[in-house]
Amino acid sequence: MKKVAIIQPSYIPWKGYFDIIHAVDVFIFLDDVQYTKRDWRSRNRIKMRDGTTRWLTVPVQGGREQLISDAPIDYAGSDWRRKHLEALRHSYGKAPHFERYYGLLRDIFGRKFPLLSQMNVAIIQALCGELGIRTELLCSTDLKTPGSRDEKLINIIRAVHGGRYLSGPSARDYIRPDLFGANGIELAYAEYSGYPQYPQISEPFEHQVTILDLLFMTGDEAPRYIWEWKSSAGGSGQ
Q: Which terminus of the chain, N or C, has fewer Cβ atoms within 10 Å?
């Protein structure tokens, strides 16, 4: 049975996002649902040298009356790409592996994607490659599955011939396990607790930042802090 996960494409997401991608056979970017403003779709946080965090936000045209897949990036209002790169260099310029991943992001920004989801997917695909993740990555817009909420998720899973669904832990509050069971789909929840700390540029330690923070500081050792530690801790929790 294929193990499947389905999450909206987010802007340079945190390590937990990649943990879920690594744990499944097929990962679907849920991009044909309503766009939400001031959310992880268009922003994420970086660590600052004074111990605080800072939001990096991609300006997007339009509002909630559009799908994630249709949300256009606003390049006219400000040179946000330069500002994001400058903020990263200011905070992480002396990090051991800064130039490697900074160059990757700079190259992606140079492509000037018209749509937010296109850029997010490109960044995530590139970072999966850096992390050695070989999971199949698809977009829900390409699957054209009907339904809403749990029914849509089930239809997506069936479309890719999946038999197990790995959900984010927050979905426990609203997901309907009975629907998944009735469709022969095993339901499991990712576990985000227990991630080990790694050297950051400042204290206190903060888990809820973009994965670039971990990559800049640990390079090829990053998987050890995302999923490899679980084998010695007694299981994945997924």
A: N
Output the six-digit token pair for 137: 């990555």
Range of the domain at 109: 2-233
Using a CB cutoff of 8 Å and minimum separation of 24, what contacts does 193-200 make? Answer: 193/237, 194/229, 194/230, 194/233, 194/237, 195/15, 195/16, 195/225, 195/226, 195/229, 196/225, 196/229, 198/225, 200/47
User: Count of domains in the chain?
Assistant: 1
* Dihedral angle sign, alpha carbons of residues 155, 161, 163, 165: negative
Taking a C-beta distance cutoff of 8 angstroms, is the pair 31, 9 a contact? yes
Residue 238 placed within a domain = no
189-234 pLDDT, tens digit each:
999 999 999 999 999 999 999 999 999 999 999 999 999 999 876 6
- 22 in Cβ contact with 227 (< 8 Å): yes
Q: How far apart are CA 112 and CA 74, in angstroms?
A: 10
Q: Where are the alpha helices (DSSP H) in 132-148?
A: 140-143
Contact 35, 70 (CB under 8 A): yes
Residue 135 lies in a domain: yes
d(CA 226, CA 222): 7
Question: Please, is 159 exposed, middle or buried when counting C-beta atoms within 10 Å of its C-beta (0-12, 13-18, 19+)?
Answer: middle
pTM score, two decimals? Answer: 0.95
